[in-house]
Amino acid sequence: MNGKPWHDSVTAVNAMTARWVKTCSGESVVMAGAGAWPLLAHLASAAEGRGRKELQEAVGLDAATASQAARAVLSIMNGSTAIRSALGLWSRPNLPLRITTLPAGMYGELTSDSTADQLRLDTWAKEQTGGLIPAMPLQLTDRVLLVLAMALTVRTTWLRPFTDGIDLFEAGPWAGRDIHVLRRSTHVLDRARVADTPAGPLTLLRVMGTGGIDVHLVLGDDSMKPGHVLTAGIDVLAGLHPATPAGLLRAGSPGPGMTIRHVRDHAPDDVLNVRVPRFTITSTHDLLNLPEVFGLSTVTDPSRGHFPGISTQPLAVTQAQQNAVATFQATGFESAAITAIGAVASGIAPPPPYRVRHIDLDFSHPFGFLTVDRRSRLILTAGWVAEPETWLAEPSS
Questions:
Q1: Measured at the alpha carbon of residue 160, what is the angle toward residues 156 and 337, in degrees to the nearest 5?
Q2: Nearest of 152, 153, 155, 121 to residue 137 by alpha carbon
Q3: Where are the beta strands (DSSP E) in 93-162?
Q4: Neighbours of 237 (CB within 10 A)
Q5: % of the chain exceeding 90 in pLDDT
Q6: Residue 48, CB half-sphere, CA atoms under 13 Å: how many?
Q7: Which of helix, strand or coil describes residue 214?
Q8: pLDDT digit string (tens) for 286-344?
Q9: What are the domain boundaries of the chain?
Q10: How many CB atoms lie within 10 A of CB 266?
Q11: What is the model's pTM?
Q12: 33-46 and 49-59 are packed helices; what angle lies between their axes, rounded to 10 degrees?
């Protein structure tokens, strides 16, 4: 893996995702670090002074080569039939651009009609995500001179589907509720693992999909905080903590949500039985609220310019938002994220008009998930499931 030209880029993206998930509060959330990192990498290459240093620290790579690293990340995405990514840049016709690090064909123009421009940007977001994100997470005003955006969509079909059903959990925060659950039994025991981490024990389930996509469900003890579960899960995937395959574990309760028992059965093979709630999560993030994660502190100062690599006109970031959605169903998984950054003029007056041994793995309390490109180990999306889907009966005919 270390021989791959994109290894350092993947490590950097995953590191930023790990910093971001540490901020999870306990509510359901989905975030796409991989959907923001390339934008920040391009900004780092174009910035100067303290802003360049902060963006470089956030990106985790030398600003001088960050744009090249961003292209490597995009090439990973383009190498999978399950991933769709796109970059877009829109600017005012009177804004002199000198940025040369972005792919050709991604440029558009902002006109004097902000309403029409907003509609065009919303349409771009909807088209690039197949309707999963209906609008651009950025509000155009007459002052916005430049918009830099990235769309990231993951759609995969499980190699072995789950079965839809309804169930009542006996314990935990979801006890007594009709939950829409997904069930699957497999003789491939090693899809589940238990890891020892400094934050506590974790149980991980690998769900394999088409297009080289894996979704890892990560379950910790009830006492573990969401950020600790997710960051420890990322470290396990990186090989930093030991993880024992379920087939090598002894009977009992070796990990959160897992019970191993010896039973009599008509079939000769051990079985891994999984029950997990179906979920759909949508999130909106203001990246400017976490400048230590994204390096967007200095570059928001409107008193001076920060991006000479973009334009000779002084520019400052005023908006940096991400809208994201993730759905885990019986047949597959899909997620999408649109990240947008808006810049206005600075240093000058604003311009006019802008989861026989039965191993039961039960996800019966909040858990995390990590969507990973199998070949590169790039983490595409991460999230926390605090609330499962309630079972909705089919309407009678």
A1: 20
A2: 121
A3: 107-109, 144-157
A4: 21
A5: 75
A6: 11
A7: strand
A8: 999 999 999 999 999 988 899 999 988 999 999 999 999 999 999 999 999 999 999 87
A9: 7-156+279-345, 159-278+356-385
A10: 5
A11: 0.92
A12: 150
Q: Which of 345, 274, 381 is nearest to 92 (CA)?
A: 345
pLDDT tens digit sequence for 95-129: 888 876 666 657 888 998 999 999 999 999 999 99
Percent residues over pLDDT 70 in the chain: 93
pLDDT at 349: 40
Question: Architecture of domain 159-278+356-385 in CATH?
Answer: Roll (2.30)
Cβ atoms of residues 287 and 296 within 8 Å: yes
Residue 226 is classified by DSSP as H
The phi, psi pair for 265, rounded to 5°, reads -150, 160
Q: What architecture is the 7-156+279-345 domain classified under in CATH? A: 2-Layer Sandwich (3.30)
Q: Are 86 and 150 in contact (CB under 8 A)?
A: yes
Same fold, 7-156+279-345 and 159-278+356-385: no
CB contact set of 273 (below 8 Å; sequence gap of 6+): 183, 184, 185, 358, 359, 360, 361
- Rounded Cα gap, residues 231 and 300, in angstroms: 28
Q: 3-state DSSP call for residue 123?
A: helix
- Residue 245's identity, in one-letter code, is P
Q: Residues with Cβ < 8 Å from 100, sequence gap 6 or more?
A: none
* Residues 54 and 185: beta-carbon distance below 8 Å: no
Token pair 């930093």 is found at: 240
